[in-house]
Amino acid sequence: MKIVVSDGVAKNWEEAIILASNKLLEKGYVQDSFGKHCIEREKKFPTGLETDFPVAIPHTESEYVNETAISVVRLKDPVVFKNMEDSSKQVKVHYVMNLAIKDKNQQVVFLSKVIQIVQDSNFLKRLFSLDEHSFEDELLKKFA
Predict the structure, then answer these.
(1) Helix 34-44 and helix 13-26, axial crossing angle in degrees, nearest 10
(2) Residues 52-81: pLDDT tens digits?
(3) Nearby residues of 94 by Cβ (< 8 Å), 6 or more positions away
(4) Under 8 Å between Cβ of 49 and 116
(5) What are the residues whose beta carbons fall under 8 Å from the beta carbon of 57, sequence distance 6 or more?
(6) Is 65 helix (H, G, I), strand (E, B) or coil?
(7) What is the pTM of this model?
(8) Contact between residue 82 and residue 46 where contact means Cβ atoms under 8 Å apart
(9) For the PTS EIIA type-2 domain, which residue ranges apply (predicted)?
(10) pLDDT tens digits, 112-144
């Protein structure tokens, strides 16, 4: 699995998704329309998770994916996503984990690994204090 890690600034959830999806596009892991489709899916099926250290996990259908990868963007300031469990609630997220899954059969395995990381609030808090290089190294180790 490929991982793209970056720091970023976004005014809202749509900008955050575009920021994350553009990192995947730059590497050729997704098609041009991937980000747009992630935004459309997010409107119908929100992905904000109200964990101890809230995250969002936007994604879309595999037909827009060239190679399985994840883009993890650490936002300087949180942006509001709608809550996955209750779309009437909002979640301020610091991390956007944009999933690009090519093989639908790998989706459950991939998501379970992401959820495992998301539930490790101590790990996410520690990541937030690291420089970008160490941030990337730690995520690569965790996903390995």
Answers:
(1) 150
(2) 889 999 999 999 999 999 999 999 999 999
(3) 53, 54, 55, 74, 75, 78, 124, 128
(4) no
(5) 47, 49, 84, 97, 98, 99, 111, 114, 118
(6) strand
(7) 0.94
(8) yes
(9) 1-143
(10) 888 899 999 899 989 989 998 899 899 989 887
Q: Which residues contact 75 (CB under 8 A, 6 or more apart)?
A: 7, 8, 9, 10, 16, 93, 94, 95, 96
Amino acid in the structure at residue 113: K
User: Domains in the chain, ordered, with CATH?
Assistant: 2-143 (3.40.930.10)
The CA angle 79-50-113, to the nearest 5 degrees, is: 100
* Tokens found for residue 15: 């900008």
Look-up: residue for tokens 């994604």? 59
Length of the chain: 144
* Residue closest to 19 by CA, chosen among 56, 64, 63: 56
